[in-house]
Structures are given as C-alpha cells and as structure tokens.
Amino acid sequence: MVTARRFKAIGVVHSPFKKAADIPMEMNADPRGFEGTESEIALFADFEPGLKDIDGFSHLIVVFAFHVSEDGRMLVKPPFETELRGVFATRSPHRPNPIGVTVVKLLGRTGPILRVSGLDAVEGTPVLDIKPYTQKDQKTDIRTGWIK
Amino acid sequence: MVTARRFKAIGVVHSPFKKAADIPMEMNADPRGFEGTESEIALFADFEPGLKDIDGFSHLIVVFAFHVSEDGRMLVKPPFETELRGVFATRSPHRPNPIGVTVVKLLGRTGPILRVSGLDAVEGTPVLDIKPYTQKDQKTDIRTGWIK
What we know:
CATH class of chain A: Mainly Beta
Radius of gyration of chain A: 16 Å
Strand content of chain A: 25-35%
Shape of chain A: globular
CATH superfamily of chain A: YaeB-like
Oligomer: homodimer
Order of helices and strands of chain A: EEHEEEEEEE
Helix content of chain A: under 10%
Distance between the termini of chain A: 37 Å
Strand order of the largest sheet of chain A: 2-3-8-7-4-9
C-alpha cells in the first residue's frame, strides 16, 4: 500500500546559511523573512538543457530535500509557537517525507547556475525539481489558520 | 554526487479522472482549468494525526508523484505548443524527478480524507506531502515567459 519511490538530486543549493542553526528563528516565522537572502542553485551538467526558457519567468518553485531534518513526526512546534500543530498544517522540515517547496525570485542565470532570492534552504541542500511559478499558483483571499 | 532518496506515499488521490487520457487538453492549458474539479485525498491511517489544524487553511499545496509519467526528458512540448520548452520552464509530468506540486482549495475534511478542488492528478496518484498555502506563496507582479 505504501509504495516507496526513489528521487535523485538534480543540483545543489549554495546558501549564505551553512547550517540550520545559522538561520535566525525570526526569519522562519516571517513570511518575508528570506526575501533579502540570495542563494545559488547549481544544477548538475546533465540537467542544464532543461533550463531552456526559464529566463522568462520572474518566480520559480524550488522542490528540495530537507537533508538534515529528522522525519516522521505528526505534531511539530513552529518557531515562537507554544502549541503543537499537525505537521501538514506547517512548513516544518521534520515531516514524513522531508520535501521542501519554496517560491523564489529568479535574479539571473549563468549556464547551469540560477541566482535566486527567497530560498530558505541551507548550503548543500539537494534540489529535486524546479518549476515555473504561474497564475495557477496565485491564490487570493486565503485563510491561514493558526498562522498570524 | 547525485544522491538518490526514497520517499513513501502518505495517501492516495481519488479523482474523477481515471487516467491521463480522460483529461481534456484544454484543462491542462488553462490556469483555471481544474478549478471545478473535485477530488479526495485519502491519507493512510498512520498520517491522520498530522492533519490537526489543517481545517484553518483555505488552500493547500499538494506534493505528489506523477506515477504514470515517463521521466528524464530535458525538452518537452506543452499542450497546444509547437515549440519544445525546457522541462524546468514547464509543469509537464515528464521530468527528471516525477514530482507534481499543485495548489488546491480545501473544501472539507472527514477524518483522514480531504475533499479538495483544483487537483490535476488522476485516480490512484500517490501523495507525498501536504503543506499549508501561506502568504509566502502569494507572489504578485509575476512574469510567466512563454505561457500566455
């Protein structure tokens, strides 16, 4: 019933944050906390041809592996929260499948290297996929539960 | 260098679309094409506790496996397009890691079952993760390249 699937890294993140402890808790709690953070996504050479046409998009969805997290928790305590929350109602890195999804701004590209801002991933994070952010992803009139 | 990772299904999609061929091409080309589509995400019992607090969110990010796609292509032809596009500049299911990311509207929950609209995934699609859609994911003033 629970089938496992194998995914491979297509590239790696180069971040000003060398490890999770380098990220101030305030940044994780603020929805705009990472807007000023510039990182690089260095794709492995085999995947560079897949970046054709990417320059036309202002924002990208980066799918990555939380490679230093512990997985499997059902309840987690978000930064500055006192109550335990269901993991699927949070963006915690500690989840049944340690997959992160972050929308970033594309600043520029040099061959297989994308320069982006807004990426909340530490140095060495394996990148699994890159997708264009489109109208489909723009939702207005949202409710965000326990998040102020 | 390219490390592989294993991910497990946390649940499964029940969709009105029994197979990919049941989805009209127009729906895939239209950013609002799936807004009227209602599906269920049935989590496996072990993961139900992780849904605590989910009801407060109007929209969710569903991460799933494109389980019937062929992977590994660097250039793909989107619906109604004549030009080949870099796979990372498209939402094609045929990608190095067959991972889909779709923002859905949460209509309701009954135990481990979420009723959602807007999910472009066929019957039996393995679900890998569910995340709340928050302010972080709302981008305005976007450019979407080759997509009209």
